[in-house]
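Changelog-adjacent note: as of this version, every example in the card shows the full chain rather than a window. The one below runs 159 residues end to end.
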Amino acid sequence: MNMTVQDQPWPPIDELVPHRGGMSWLDRVLSVDADTVVAEAVIRPDTFCVEHDQVPAWAGIEYMAQAVAAWAGHRALTEQRPVDLGFLVGTRRYESTVEGYAVGTCLRIEGRCELMGDNGLGMFACRVLVDGDCVASANLSVFAPRNGLAFVKGLEGTP
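Full-length structure tokens:
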């Protein structure tokens, strides 16, 4: 069952994703369940990478990735684990019908888990909507190790 914000008081976004400060682009989670996430972000003048009063369309990938991070954070909290680092491994078929997102625009970011392996590798079908219209879509490949910080530390010194 997909619960909405009216049914469930979702934790603040900074409790669901490891991003902080200017790197935290989402404003809130609207709904989340075992397979899907819906988040919202408003483009503000101080939003990271605003140029000429808009965020470039390629940034849609990061909005999608942060929505997936919120899904993973919710999953971690549900399983009584700490929210941890995850990694965007790549994207496939990123398509956008806009050149950017203007300041003042409210983005609705949706993600659906297509596959999540026990090894932490997963695939999400994502899209960005503005006023109900899909303006960007992509498939994201992600990696969510059980201890992301230890994983990163293990890479130190690796060529």
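Structural remarks: The longest strand covers residues 106-116.
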